[in-house]
Specification:
Protein name: DUF4274 domain-containing protein
Shape: elongated
Number of strands: 7
Organism: Rubritalea halochordaticola
Number of helices: 10
């Protein structure tokens, strides 16, 4: 089946992600930039001007670009957000579609990282993360971006990182990954009596995946409470948990990241 290139990373979203990476770096490294950018930092000018317009950075008395109070808050919010987003979808990274199994359900069976990795390398697993988040109304593009951040794919410590932040090939790789992922339309099948839609298959995958997540982290009240609010188990209501926790009224995957 030929993949449909329905995912793309437009200039506006690329600017958003680049600016997010820059304020994250400024927050973590307590970094500021002289307004007279040197040759290495010259490629940051457009992003810095964009952040200044958004009031996420400000001009210091020493004539340096520094994070504003709002910029500090947004940088901290992002650091929490991307890790939280990944926490709900890592369970879909290794799914055996034929057996209906999730690799994460067996994580406790392995005593070494090498054995666990060997288990994950089995060919039976399919990566359903993009399909899952898109099925739930989220953004596969943002999910891949979050993974790149966690994996430190945007290495901002080497020479010329400023140029790559603006023009790097990683921005092209993000939609390529999304466009090569399994689509729910590919999951439709005929069970001998009727056609089972890709939506119905994804409903089952998401239901089972979140059940595995609940079992994997039985003592995480935030995860359980949020899932009960965002994707309650079929035919089950837990009245002992607040639904949802304050500040989490809407699923994180349905709340686009903005600056």
């Amino acid at each position: 089946m030929v993949a449909l290139n329905t995912f793309h990373l437009g200039e506006e979203q690329r600017q958003l992600f680049a600016a997010t990476l820059l304020i994250d770096k400024m927050e973590r490294e307590k970094k500021s930039y002289d307004v007279l950018l040197d040759s290495g930092d010259a490629d940051l000018e457009c992003t810095l001007q964009w952040l200044l317009m958004k009031q996420l950075i400000q001009m210091s008395k020493e004539h340096r670009y520094e994070l504003s109070p709002r910029g500090h808050a947004k940088a901290k919010e992002f650091a929490t957000r991307y890790q939280t987003l990944l926490a709900y979808f890592d369970v879909f990274a290794h799914v055996d579609l034929e057996a209906g199994e999730f690799a994460m359900a067996s994580h406790g069976d392995f005593s070494s990282e090498a054995a666990w990795q060997s288990f994950l390398d089995q060919e039976r697993w399919h990566d359903m993360r993009i399909a899952a988040i898109e099925h739930l109304g989220g953004s596969g593009v943002e999910l891949v971006f979050a993974h790149f951040v966690r994996e430190d794919r945007f290495d901002m410590s080497h020479d010329h990182w400023q140029f790559e932040l603006k023009h790097g090939v990683l921005w092209d790789e993000i939609p390529e990954i999304c466009n090569s992922a399994i689509r729910k339309s590919e999951l439709a099948y005929h069970d001998g009596e009727q056609e089972v839609s890709g939506d119905a298959v994804m409903d089952d995958i998401v239901e089972q995946g979140f059940a595995v997540l609940r079992e994997r982290y039985p003592s995480d009240p935030t995860l359980h409470s949020n899932l009960q609010a965002w994707y309650p188990r079929r035919g089950y209501v837990n009245h002992d948990l607040p639904v949802p926790l304050p500040g989490w009224e809407k699923p994180i995957w349905q709340t686009p990241w903005t600056l």
